[in-house]
Amino acid sequence: MNSKPLFSIITVSKNAELLISRTLHSLNAQTYRNFEHVIIDGASEDNTKSIVENLRRNNTLFLSEQDEGIYYAMNKGLNIAKGVYFSFLNAGDTYDIKMLEMVSKIISSNLDLDLICADARVIGVNGKIRIEKSDPEAIKKHMIPHLGIFIRNKFDRTQSFDTRFRIAADYHFLLSEIAHGGTLRRIPKPLATFYDGGFSNTPENRIRSILETQALRRQFGYIGREKEFIIILYLIVATILKGPYRMKMITFIFRFLAKR
Fold first, then answer.
1. How far, in Å, CA of 27 to CA of 6, rounded?
2. Mean pLDDT of all residues belonging to the chain
3. Is residue 259 pLDDT above 80, yes or no?
4. 121-159: pLDDT as tens digits
5. How distant, in Å, are the alpha carbons of 40, 66, 167 from that of 123?
6. Rounded to two decimals, what is the model's pTM?
7. At residue 18, what are phi and psi to the nearest 5 degrees?
8. Angle formed by the axes of helices 225-240 and 203-219, to 10°?
9. Using an 8 Å Cβ cutoff, are 134 and 122 in contact?
10. How distant is the alpha carbon of residue 127 from its chain centre?
11. Which helix (H) or strand (E) covers residue 131, if one does?
């Protein structure tokens, strides 16, 4: 393998004029330059395209057209990607300035690695910062922030997001890679940042996220039916509750799952 592997950084966007510049500035500042930036835009109707045109570098590919949803767009980006490793960096998310340089050094000394996972900072809607760890035990419980994950590109159709999952297709993708023998190395340091409050953050989508996540945990042998039944009971209660009580119950379920 080349001592300076090509990375494909894939960004999915739609009407992201308030977010996309932050991501572009983050990539333009990288100390490691051997990467391509693939932007898959869902036919934005705001100023996203003009912002990209103003900030793009020669390594930027911008494709804007209608699609059927976020995971369809991510599959489109993956099919275009030419990098030996790829990662997904959504509009508004950022890398630390030496993120790609550090990942490159790890790959150069560990040529058999299939996945490199860095910890990430999460900035909540209240402005508070927490650290999401990417250790293997965490992966058994829930999806880790995908912006910190670099995956070896197999350049075939076996690597794609299952669009039957509305929320947890990225978790299914990660568990499938590991189940097929993917070797993993964790970087126990936050090297990326994302802002909470995205697509899956509404009460309805958070409930769906829990259901899809637990179904995948059972499919891949990380949870038994008894624990899954308890979680479903909690979710039934959450759907009955109204207003802030529903969100409090959903938050409790997430904390409960983090310990299981």
1. 14
2. 87
3. no
4. 999 888 899 999 998 888 988 899 889 999 999 987 678
5. 24, 30, 20
6. 0.86
7. -85, -5
8. 170
9. no
10. 20
11. strand 129-132
